[in-house]
Amino acid sequence: MKKLILMCLFFLVIGVFSQNAHALTYTITSYPGRPAWGGGAFLINGSIATYCLELSERITLGVPYIGTIDDFATQGGGLSSAKGGGPVSAPGQDFLDYWSEWLVAKYINHSVANADRMKDFQNALWYIEGELSALPTVLDTNYYALVSAANPTENIPWIRVLNLYAYNDLGQLIDKQSVIITPEPGTLLLLGAGLLGLGFLVRRRLN
């Protein structure tokens, strides 16, 4: 009976969090070897590589943020990205460009090999998303040229946006940033809830 109750509780928790991307906390830290600048690469909760979407927004590293998983960056929008296609952005809904999704899916692991690649990758994303008017000088790898040559035109549904928020005691928004996430959203939800590995823990204790 104890085993049944614990396993039911575990699946209930997973079900709740997989349907609700709100009120979970995430902490952003520097990826090892990240250059001292305003862009990525970063780590979500110490394990998932990510990059910024919004150039003008800032985030404090090492501080827990409330996070929501969406198809777009909130409080961005209104920018003309559409380098490769995707839903039309509007104020409050800055949708990911298909080219950004492709780059993340294909090259995010390649990009974190050194500081110059991190800068090149971040700048390519910002340029694709309309955050930069021109592509900065390439230091190592021209990620924009790679995606331009491939010219992807389809959505990659498992590439999503993690919108992060921080509020003061008065409930006023004081800090905000949007980053790209690459795993299945359910995985990140469990990570944000501190539940990743709970199944293994329950099983071990029952054994």
Polypeptide structure, described:
The chain is of the alpha+beta class and 207 residues long. The chain has one domain (33-55, 81-206). Helix content is 34%, strand content 20%. The chain has helices spanning 2-19, 98-111, 115-128, 143-150, 185-192, 198-206, and strands spanning 24-30, 42-44, 48-50, 64-70, 72-73, 94-95, 160-167, 173-181. The strands form two sheets. A six-stranded antiparallel beta sheet has the order 3-2-1-4-7-8. It has a two-stranded antiparallel sheet with strand order 5-6. Helix 1 crosses helix 5, helix 1 (2-19) packs antiparallel against helix 6 (198-206) and helix 2 packs antiparallel against helix 3 (115-128). The protein is globular. It starts with a helix and ends with a helix. The model is unreliable at 1-22 and 194-207 (pLDDT under 50).
Query: Describe the biggest sheet?
Result: 6 strands, antiparallel
Q: What are the secondary-structure elements, in order, as H or E? A: HEEEEEEHHHEEHH
Shape summary: globular
Q: Structural class from helices and strands?
A: alpha+beta
Radius of gyration, rounded? 18 Å
Number of domains: 1
Beta strand count: 8
Distance between the ends:
14 Å
Low-confidence stretches: 1-22, 194-207
Bin the helical content: 25-40%
What strand line-up does the widest sheet have? 3-2-1-4-7-8
Query: Mean of residue pLDDT?
Result: 76
Proportion of beta-strand residues: 15-25%
Give the count of helical stretches. 6
What's the arrangement of secondary structure elements?
Blueprint: H1 2-19, E1 24-30, E2 42-44, E3 48-50, E4 64-70, E5 72-73, E6 94-95, H2 98-111, H3 115-128, H4 143-150, E7 160-167, E8 173-181, H5 185-192, H6 198-206
Antiparallel strand pairs: 1-2, 1-4, 2-3, 4-7, 5-6, 7-8
